[in-house]
Design a protein that fits this description.
Low-confidence stretches: none
Shape: globular
Structural class: alpha/beta
Helix content: 25-40%
Strand content: 15-25%
Order of helices and strands: EEEHEHHEHEEEEHEH
Mean pLDDT: 94
Strand order of the largest sheet: 4-1-5-9-6-10
Largest sheet: 6 strands, mixed
Radius of gyration: 19 Å
Distance between the termini: 26 Å
Number of strands: 10
C-alpha cells in the first residue's frame, strides 16, 4: 500500500503564536512529527503542507522540504483539514503520482511512541476498514451512556438515546475520543470529503505522552513531557 503522510502546518496560531516553529525543548515543534514520520518504514512519501515561508524553511532544515506552498485560503481559520489533504492529493495526482491512503500527522500532537505510526498502518491494512484514528479511552464518568443532553422540553435525556441509565460502571462499554495523533484514510474516501468513510478502525495511543497543543497551558504541559520523551 502506497501511503502519503501529510503534515499540515500553518503560520497563524492564536493560542500559541508561531507554535509550529516555536522551540519545544531543543527542537521546533514541527520537527517532532517530521522525525516520527521519517522513522516510519511504512510511509511512501512525506509532505509538509504550509503557506508559510518560515515553516517551509524549518521543514527543509529537518530534511522534509515542501514541494509546494499551499494557497493562503487553505490556512485561514475557516479552512478544513480535509481541504488541505485534498490539495496535497491533487498536487501529486497532477504529476501522475497516486497513493492508496493518506496518513495525516498533526504537529500539535508531537509525541508519538517509537514505531507507533508503523503499528497503526499495519493494523489499518489488516482491518480492511476505510479509515483509522488514534484514540484514548474516555473516563467512565464521561462515558456517553452516562452523559445527558437537553431535550426539546427542557428536560435531560440520555445522550445515547437510551431510556434507562446503565447502573454500574462495570457494565459500561468502552468509549474513546480521538487524540489527533494519527488519521489514516483511503485516498478515495479523502477525495470524497471525509476522513472516516463507512468503517473506522482504531489504535490506542499512550496516554503518558499525550498532549494536543492549542493553548499556552497545553504548551506548558508539552514542556514538562518533552524531558521524558525522546523525539
Amino acid at each position: 500500500m502506497k501511503i502519503l503522510a501529510i503534515i499540515p502546518a500553518r503560520g497563524g496560531s492564536k493560542g500559541v503564536p508561531r507554535k509550529n516553529i516555536k522551540l519545544l525543548g531543543k527542537m521546533p515543534l514541527i520537527e517532532y512529527t517530521i522525525n516520527s514520520a521519517k522513522a516510519s518504514t511504512e510511509l511512501t512519501e512525506i509532505v509538509v503542507s504550509t503557506e508559510d515561508a518560515e515553516i517551509a524553511i524549518a521543514a527543509e532544515v529537518c530534511g522534509c522540504k515542501p514541494p509546494f506552498i499551499r494557497p493562503a485560503e487553505l490556512s485561514e481559520d475557516e479552512a478544513t483539514s480535509i481541504s488541505v489533504v485534498q490539495h496535497a492529493i491533487a498536487f501529486y495526482e497532477n504529476q501522475n503520482i497516486f497513493f492508496d491512503a493518506i496518513c495525516l500527522l498533526q504537529p500539535t500532537t508531537p509525541f508519538r511512541a517509537k514505531g507507533f505510526i508503523d503499528e497503526a498502518i499495519r493494523k489499518f491494512m489488516a482491518s480492511g476498514a476505510e479509515s483509522m484514528v488514534s484514540v484514548l479511552p474516555i473516563p467512565h464518568e464521561y462515558n456517553p451512556h452516562w452523559a445527558f443532553e437537553e431535550g426539546p422540553n427542557g428536560l435531560l435525556r440520555i445522550a445515547t438515546g437510551e431510556t434507562q441509565i446503565i447502573p454500574r460502571r462495570q457494565e459500561l462499554p468502552r468509549a474513546f475520543h480521538r487524540d489527533g495523533s494519527i488519521y489514516l484514510t483511503k485516498t478515495a474516501v479523502a477525495k470524497a470529503g471525509s476522513f472516516y468513510g463507512d468503517s473506522i478502525a482504531y489504535i490506542e495511543s499512550n496516554p503518558d505522552c499525550y498532549v494536543n497543543i492549542d493553548t499556552m497551558k497545553d504548551w506548558e504541559k508539552a514542556e514538562r513531557l518533552v524531558h521524558h520523551f525522546n523525539g
